[in-house]
Specification:
alpha/beta
């Protein structure tokens, strides 16, 4: 799978309450969640994000509660990939389960600015900053996890199998 988009960049320790505030968790409809994604840290995010864009985060991205609403909100907002220095383990698994593509690449996060354009080949693990020309190599997911992400999440993968 290949993706390309404009970067939206966030700091270390972005927790699930910032990604989708608890006051919106009484609804699980993806588009509703997307309409409130990141609003407590970036009130203009939903106005700026376009389908295919890429989100960057620092260390411990997705920490906090184990709610799957957070990766659902990110994915439904149009984000095609989240690259972080590291992910909270429960967010990492919830992202895979909901079909949100994620990669860990501290160097890419450090050397990329908001507004840059990144492309990524998730099958080969190559990330390229189209703005600067810099390339990064990360370990791609194993084939079975790539199949889950390509299917749009674990439940879709199971239905297809």
């Amino acid at each position: 799978m290949k993706v390309k988009g404009t970067v939206h960049k966030y700091p270390d320790n972005v927790d699930t309450d910032v990604i989708i505030p608890a006051r919106y968790l009484n609804v699980s409809e993806p588009q509703y969640l997307a309409s409130h994604c990141m609003e407590d840290i970036d009130p203009d995010f939903v106005k700026k994000v376009k389908a295919g864009d890429i989100m960057l985060g620092g260390y411990n991205f997705g920490c906090g509660s184990s709610r799957e609403h957070a990766p659902i909100a990110i994915k439904a907002s149009g984000i095609s990939l989240v690259i972080a220095k590291s992910f909270a383990r429960i967010f990492y698994r919830n992202a895979i389960n909901t079909g949100l593509a994620i990669l860990e690449c501290p160097e890419c996060v450090d050397e990329t600015n908001a507004g840059d354009v990144l492309s990524a080949d998730l099958d080969s693990g190559i990330i390229k900053n189209e703005t600067t020309g810099k390339e990064y190599k990360v370990s791609p997911f194993p084939e079975f996890i790539q199949k889950i992400i390509n299917a749009g999440g674990l439940l879709n993968y199971i239905k297809e199998a």
